[in-house]
């Protein structure tokens, strides 16, 4: 063991003993090891708040819009709301063959109730969004693994609000799984081809009060193929096509379900304009089948101003067994065996402050085969309107 010159000098004149110096040095060595490990860990997150005003009212009991980020008990409705505080600790994989790391992401606030990760998921205002160990095995180009709780692999929109083109969620998001507990592997065949696949014994859908614990005897199976256009495609380089599927075993409530997803992101000859599209199909096995088609358009008007447009068509062939589809601040009355809906959402985002996402949104929903309701107008409204202001600080 090495000692610094001050320790040697003090020991020589009898002020300290070498034995005590060894004991004193051991905690320092331990602390150094801990600090070295922590030095590769990053802290990040965001604080998300919003103000919502909807024309169309709410269902009796104060049902809030299922497509908004906040959905649990006491979550976003009319007025000013704290949506979520996100805190993430991350040690990413390095370039070594046997790399290891982890990711922990915690949610606090009303949005956390939609994660259903706690024993009382509708009242705690706290949830584990992700918590997994990341590993790499040197097989071929290397397989990267996630073991634990992780975000789902399908969908044009995700749980991170500011990463979505719009503040409110699409109907397609509402019928996709959002989080899984299991194991997921990712393999990069080449720059243009990536595949992710895995199994899970628990599947969560955001805002669905019943998480699906189907067990490994009847696991959820996940798969996603991503094709990315290389530089030789000119202005279309970077375009991505996503083909994915998730099957949940028949032991799940309602008989399980199979989700099919096709997504596309496409640049255009104008660097300021990007387009995207998504197709979702959910076969609920023993009840309904649901279809959603959405198109996205982004125009980067200036360095700070971005304009986003989403247009969507949704169809539920078994709404009587799926009464959770709500819109425009008001719940749909699930009295028909069929539900058709369209929505158009316009969002303007302006970067006025550093690290702050500021956006304003206007949304119109229309029902073809049912009606929105509020406390005095039960089911006669064909249109619902929503206006929102969303402010997010990222750190």
Task: Describe this entry's structure for a reader.
With about 400 residues, this protein is mostly beta strands. It has 2 domains: about 1-35; about 45-395, Porin (Beta Barrel). The chain is about 10% helix and about 50% strand. It is built from 3 helices and 21 strands. The chain has helices spanning about 5-10, 20-40, 170-175; strands at about 40-55, 80-90, 100-110, 125-135, 145-150, 180-190, 195-205, 210-215, 220-230, 240-250, 255-265, 275-285, 290-300, 305-315, 325, 330, 340-350, 355-365, 370-375, 380, 385-395. The protein has a 16-stranded antiparallel beta barrel. Strands 15-16 form a two-stranded antiparallel ribbon. It is globular. The protein starts with a helix and ends with a strand. The model is unreliable at about 5-25, about 55-75 and about 320-335 (pLDDT under 50).
Give short descriptive properties of this protein.
single chain; 395 residues; mainly beta; Porin; 16-stranded antiparallel beta barrel; two-stranded antiparallel ribbon; 3 helices; 8% helix; globular
Order of helices and strands: HHEEEEEHEEEEEEEEEEEEEEEE
Number of helices: 3
Rg over C-alpha atoms, rounded to the nearest angstrom: 25 Å
CATH-defined topology of the largest domain: Porin
Strand order of the largest sheet: 1-2-3-4-5-6-7-9-10-11-12-13-14-17-18-21
**In the CATH hierarchy, what is the architecture of the largest domain at level 2?**
Beta Barrel
As a percent range, the share of strand residues is: over 45%
Quick one: how many beta strands? 21
Average of pLDDT: 79
Share of helix among residues?
A: under 10%
Distance, first to last CA: 41 Å
Biggest beta sheet attributes: 16 strands, antiparallel, barrel
Q: Low-confidence spans: pLDDT under 50, at least 5 residues?
A: 5-24, 57-76, 319-336
The backbone outline, from C-alpha atoms, is globular
Number of domains: 2
Structural class: mainly beta
Under the CATH scheme, which class of the largest domain?
Mainly Beta
Question: What is the CATH homologous superfamily assignment of the largest domain?
Answer: Porin
